[in-house]
Amino acid sequence: MFRRRLAGVLAAGMAAAALLTACGGDDAADGPVTLKVLTWEPGGVEYWKQVKTSFEAGHQGIKLEMQSVPFDKYPEVQGPYITSQSGPDVMANNAGLELFDRRGAYVPLGDKAAEITKDLVTYSGACEGFDTGKPCYGVPFSYQGNVLYYNKAVLTAAGLDPEQPPATWDEFGAACEAVKKAGKTCLALGLSGTFPAYWDFPEIARNYLSEDDIRALLAGTLSWKDPKLVAVLGKLAEITTKGWANKNAPSITMLPDGADIFQRGDAAFAGTIISDAVNWEAFGKALGDDKLGVTRWPTINPAAPLAGKFSGIEGAVYGVTQWSEKKQAGLEFISWLAGKENGELWVKYGKGQPLNKTVDKALLPSSPAFLKIQELVAQPTLHAGVMLSGPEADALARGWQQVTLGQLSVDKWADQMQQALERSPTKKQGK
Amino acid sequence: MTISTAPVSDPVGTDAPPAPARRPPRPGRAREWWLGAALVLPALVLAVLFKLVPLVRGVLTSFESSSGFGGSEFAGADNYTRMFDDPMVLTSFRNALLVVATLPVWIVLPLILALLIHQRSPGWKFFRAVYFVPYTIAPIVVGIMFRQILAPDGPLNALLRFVGLDPLALEWLNGRYSALFSLVAVALWSFFGLGVMTYLAGLATIPEENLEAAYLDGAGFFRRLWSVVVPMLRPTVAYWSVLCASGVLIWLFPLIYALTQGGPGDATMLPEYLVFLTTFQFLDRGYGSAIGIALFVFVAVLSIFSVRHMFTEGTRKPR
C-alpha cells in the first residue's frame, strides 16, 4: 500500500516537473522574459546599473539578469558555457578574432545588422574578417584602442617636460633613464596573462606592418618568421631587457598589479586602453586629471604608413547566443545597446568613447586626457592585437616573460610564435 | 526399483578427497544479494554517471579535431602524436615529474609533525589547530595571498633581508625553478594540515604502551618514528601517499591559476592547467582532451604502485 502511494507521489512529481520544464522554455507570453546577460561590465558597475534600469523601463516585458565576471577570468567562465551550449542568452566578446573564434556561439544578425548599426561609426569588428558584407555576430557600442598614459608629476620630478612627452623610441629610452635615476619605474607592466599581447604589440607593430600585413596576420598567412614580425618582437623585448619596465613584470598581471604601480604614482608611463577599465577616467581619479597626460606610443619608424595612426577597434560586442530560447528579446536588447540612449549612458557613466554618432556632444567629458584621446583616435587603423589567436596571444605573453628573464632569444620567440600560429584552430581552418 | 542413498564408491581412486557436497542455496541468500546490490547501486550509478561517462566522453573527444567551438571531425591518433612535437606538453609533463619528485616531503613532513603533536610536545594543542587552518582557506585565496608574500619586495624577502639573509631573498616567482618550487611549497603549506590530521588519526590506533616502551628503551625521536611508528602506521602512510600521488598535480591547479598562470614562460605549466588552457582559451577541445587522457594515464601509473601496496596492506591477515 505504502509502495503504491510512494510510486504515485513520485509519478505526480515527475509529471509536474516535466510540465514546468515545457512551459519555461520560450519567450513567455504571460509574464516578463528574463534575459541572462554574461558581461565583464565594461564601463563599470554604475553604468551597467543604469543599463538595466533604463532598458527595463523602456521594455516592460523584459527583465535583465546580469552575470558579471571579472575581465581576466571571463574566458574561463564563458568557455564551459560555449562547450556545453547552454547558459546566458546574451554574451560579450572583444571584437576581432576573439569573437570570430567563438562565432559558433552567436546567432548571425543577417539582414538586421545594417538596420541595428545604422548610427554606429563602425561595426566591422563584429563581422567576419572585418567585412560588413560577411556575417556579423553582435553589436558593439564603444570604441577601444591603446594609448600611453603618463604621470606628469613623475616626468617633472625626473627633469622632463610633461607637456612634451617622448615621441620617438630613442626619446622614450632617454626619458626612461631619467625616470629611473629619479627612483621611479618608467613603464608599469605586468606580463602574466595576455593583456600585453593585446595592448602593446599593436603599438610596435604599427611601425612595421601595413594594413594588408595586419589582415594577413588575421588570416594566418603572415609568418612569424617574417623579418617585419621578428623586428616587432625585438622591439617588444627591448622594453624589458633595457630595464624600462618594473623588474617583477614577468610574474605579475597588468590588471590589477601593473596598473596599480601607475595609479600609486610609482611609474611614469602605462600603456593601456581608452575605454572600459584602466582608462583616462580611472587614472584621472587616482592621480588627478591635471597630472594625467596621454600620448601615442613612441614612434620607431616615422616613415611607416601606420606609424602616426591609432590602433582602434570596436569594444565589447554583445550577441545573442545560439542556444537561447529568448532570441527575440535578446535581439531587442542588443539593438538597444547600439542606440542613442545607451550611447549617452556609456558616455555619462561608462566614461568611454561612444560609437553612436547621434550622441549629444555636450555630454562628452571635459577631461584634458579625454580631449587628447579625441585627437588621437581621429586617424584609426586596424588593431593588430585583436588579430592574434588564443595560442598566439598566449605564446606572445609567455615568450615576452622568457625573453625578459633571459631564457629565450628573440629568434626562438619567433619560432614559438610560428608554432602557436600553426596550432591555432581558427587560423588553421582559415587556411 | 529402489533408490539407494548410500555413498557411491569413487571409481577413480580412493585417495582423492571427496568432492564437497553442494549445499542447497539458503533462502535468505538471494535476498541478501539483492539488498547488497540495492545498497551499492546508488554509488555505482553516480560513479558511472560522473566518472565513467565523462572519462569515456573525454577519450572519444581526444580522437576528434575541433575548430574553435564549432563542429568536430574524427582525427584518429593525430592529437596524441601531436603531443610529442609540442614543447609545451613535454615541458608540462617534465614539470609534473619535478613536482612528483617532491612527494617524499609531502609524505614525511606531516608525519613528523603529527608525531610531535601526538607525543604532546610543548604547544601541541596550539599547533594541532594552527596546522589545519591553511587547509580551510580556499586555494584561490591562498594563491592571491602568496602573490603578495612572494613578490620581490614582499614580506618574505623583507623578512629575509631583515635577518641578514639577503642572498636568500630571491625573485621567487620569476625564476625557472624557483617559481615551480615556490608553487609546490605554497601547495604544501596549504595541504599539509590534512596530512597531519590523517596521521594523527592513524597514530591514535597505536597503543600508547608501544611508544612508551620504546621511549623507556632509550629510543630517540627518529628511532621511534622509523622503528615503531612507520611499521605500525603503514596503511595510513600508504593511504596518504596515494592521496598525495594522485592529488598533488590537481591541488596545484588553483594556485597556478591565481599565482603564475603557468609562467614565467612555461616554468609552472602543468598538464592540468594546460588542459584547461588548450580547451577553453585555445578552443582546441580534441587536443585538450588528449592531454587530459595523457595526464590520467600519468597519474594512474603513479598511483598504481601505492594503491596495490595499500590493498596488500589492507587485506593482509593478522599473524
TrEMBL record, chain A:
Keyword field: Signal
Organism per entry: Micromonospora matsumotoense
InterPro entries, per database record: Bact_solute-bd_prot1, SBP
PANTHER family in the record: ARABINOSE-BINDING PROTEIN-RELATED (PTHR43649), DIACETYLCHITOBIOSE BINDING PROTEIN DASA (PTHR43649:SF12)
Protein's name according to its UniProt entry: Carbohydrate ABC transporter substrate-binding protein, CUT1 family
Signal peptide: 1-28
Any single Pfam family the record assigns to this protein: SBP_bac_8
Acetylation recorded as keyword: no
Domain of life: Bacteria
SUPFAM superfamilies, A to Z: Periplasmic binding protein-like II
From TrEMBL, chain B:
PANTHER family, per database record: ABC TRANSPORTER PERMEASE PROTEIN, INNER MEMBRANE ABC TRANSPORTER PERMEASE PROTEIN YCJO
Membrane topology reported for the UniProt record: Multi-pass membrane protein
Keyword Cell membrane applies: yes
Species this chain originates from: Micromonospora matsumotoense
Protein name: Carbohydrate ABC transporter membrane protein 1, CUT1 family
GO cellular component: plasma membrane
Family annotation (InterPro entries): ABC_transporter_permease, MetI-like, MetI-like_sf
Stated family: Belongs to the binding-protein-dependent transport system permease family.
Annotated segments matching region Disordered: 1-26
Compartment(s): Cell membrane
Bilayer-crossing regions: 33-53, 96-117, 129-150, 177-201, 237-259, 287-307
Stored CDD domains: TM_PBP2
Superkingdom in the source lineage: Bacteria
GO biological process: transmembrane transport
Residue ranges of every copy of the ABC transmembrane type-1 domain listed in the record: 92-306
Entry keyword Membrane: yes
UniProtKB keywords: Cell membrane, Membrane, Transmembrane, Transmembrane helix, Transport
Species lineage: Bacteria, Bacillati, Actinomycetota, Actinomycetes, Micromonosporales
